[in-house]
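Structure (tokenized):
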């Protein structure tokens, strides 16, 4: 009999784990347990009756690097290549990003102009920040906050404006609490290897090997210079395609099946779910770290303590669609530094990147404009109170006020959807890397056949989640999954 692998958590990480398990030459028996009534986790897309697509989670994926190439290979295997919507690097949605500061939108500097002269909101040319990085000795601390790192290497303005906003845009987090080593490993390693972030990023370093020869969609993405991509049916269609792929290949998928308790006895896992107990030889947890911590037995208390200490931020996602409205600028969107408005993380101009998702306008020929306002993050509690109790009307009015103040859009939106995504983005705080080492040491010392995948550990992007699942399956099977 083949061994049984139980995958707990049916988001993109758990589905990707199932995908790689069922494609193995000798696949194990695969059981996927999902607490909610749907698969896909934070990949959530809504289609309006007019055909407009609204994303309540990730809205695009970057094709770069080995992980980006592997995701594209999966997309191709799932038969979704024809549904790809690609944004090339020359597109305004790839080139133009803005900061909202002092009541005005400012384009983020790009090209030589922004390097050689002062471009608001920065008071000095960024050349001075670059020179500071080249002349500043490498740090020696094993970890540092993203804010502290940026201030030391590039100066206070880059830390207060650019890196503060970047952390809010990527992690919905506070740059003063987030770890540069865990959140931005490329920057941390660049400084360690070359003594300068800019030199480290510009010069090649050892450890190559790369991702092997590119094929199919990855080669096309490079040739066409994609910046990001989405799918015609929205990002949730990736989850639906994974379900359709793994189900006929023997994976048993169960919704409404929360894991309440997990214990390891006589070489096997016992998984307690409502009304039943399942056994498995190996468990892949794609749950948020804190959710797994609550299911562990008393003897795994050291592990539960470490997992429970990985925090997560909640984000209110407000999708708005206006008819006959136009943006004052064109680009991907704008971020808001915490010094300007802690509650408002930023606004994404969805129609610029993916006009194919705009649907049919109510008035023929009228322009349609979709926006997403992101609220809360690390500032949710202080701005709006308990994410589980906040009134959607409060969030909607806050979002509408923001697009009116920032973009001059004062009309009534044709569509408005408010989603509160509780604890959706893990926060890699200072010392996160040491916590991961202690977690892995416990699993090894206790010889527990338990694999941890997903956004709680080593990257929050869609690509990171898929890559972590693929790597875990490779370790279980004793060889990397086929590409």
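Design, position by position:
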């Amino acid at each position: 009999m083949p061994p049984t692998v139980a995958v707990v958590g049916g988001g993109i990480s758990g589905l990707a784990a199932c995908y790689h398990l069922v494609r193995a030459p000798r696949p194990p028996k695969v059981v996927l347990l999902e607490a909610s009534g749907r698969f896909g986790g934070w990949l959530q897309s809504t289609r309006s009756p007019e055909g407009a697509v609204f994303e309540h989670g990730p809205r695009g994926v970057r094709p770069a690097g080995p992980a980006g190439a592997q995701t594209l290979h999966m997309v191709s295997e799932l038969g979704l290549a024809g549904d790809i919507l690609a944004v090339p690097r020359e597109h305004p949605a790839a080139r133009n990003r803005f900061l909202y500061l002092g009541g005005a939108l400012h384009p983020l500097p790009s090209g030589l102009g922004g390097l050689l002269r002062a471009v608001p909101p920065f008071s000095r040319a960024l050349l001075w920040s670059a020179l500071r990085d080249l002349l500043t000795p490498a740090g020696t601390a094993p970890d540092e906050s993203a804010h502290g790192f940026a201030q030391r290497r590039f100066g206070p303005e880059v830390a207060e404006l650019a890196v503060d906003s970047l952390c809010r845009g990527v992690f919905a987090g506070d740059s003063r609490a987030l770890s540069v080593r865990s959140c931005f490993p490329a920057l941390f390693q660049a400084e360690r290897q070359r003594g300068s972030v800019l030199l480290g990023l510009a010069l090649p370093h050892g450890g190559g090997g790369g991702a092997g020869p590119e094929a199919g969609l990855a080669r096309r993405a490079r040739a066409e210079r994609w910046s990001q991509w989405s799918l015609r049916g929205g990002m949730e269609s990736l989850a639906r395609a994974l379900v359709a792929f793994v189900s006929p290949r023997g994976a048993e998928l169960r919704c409404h099946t929360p894991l309440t308790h997990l214990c390891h006895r006589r070489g096997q896992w016992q998984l307690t779910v409502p009304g039943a107990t399942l056994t498995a030889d190996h468990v892949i947890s794609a749950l948020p770290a804190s959710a797994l911590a609550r299911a562990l037995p008393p003897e795994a208390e050291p592990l539960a303590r470490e997992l429970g200490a990985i925090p997560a931020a909640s984000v209110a996602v407000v999708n708005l669609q206006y008819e006959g409205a136009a943006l004052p600028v064109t680009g991907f969107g704008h971020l808001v530094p915490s010094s300007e408005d802690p509650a408002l993380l930023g606004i994404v101009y969805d129609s610029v990147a993916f006009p194919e998702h705009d649907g049919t306008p109510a008035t023929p020929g009228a322009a349609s404009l979709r926006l997403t306002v992101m609220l809360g993050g690390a500032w949710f509690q202080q701005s709006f109170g308990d994410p589980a109790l906040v009134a959607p009307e409060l969030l909607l009015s806050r979002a509408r006020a923001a697009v009116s103040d920032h973009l001059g859009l004062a009309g009534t939106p044709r569509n408005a959807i408010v989603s509160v995504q509780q604890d959706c983005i893990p926060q890699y705080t200072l010392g996160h890397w040491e916590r991961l080492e202690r977690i892995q040491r416990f699993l090894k010392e206790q010889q527990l056949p338990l694999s941890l995948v997903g956004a709680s550990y080593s990257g929050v992007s869609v690509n990171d989640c898929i890559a972590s699942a693929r790597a875990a399956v490779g370790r279980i099977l004793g060889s990397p999954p086929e590409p």
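Reviewer-requested clarification: Residues 207-212 have pLDDT under 50 and may be disordered. The first strand starts at residue 4 and ends at 8.
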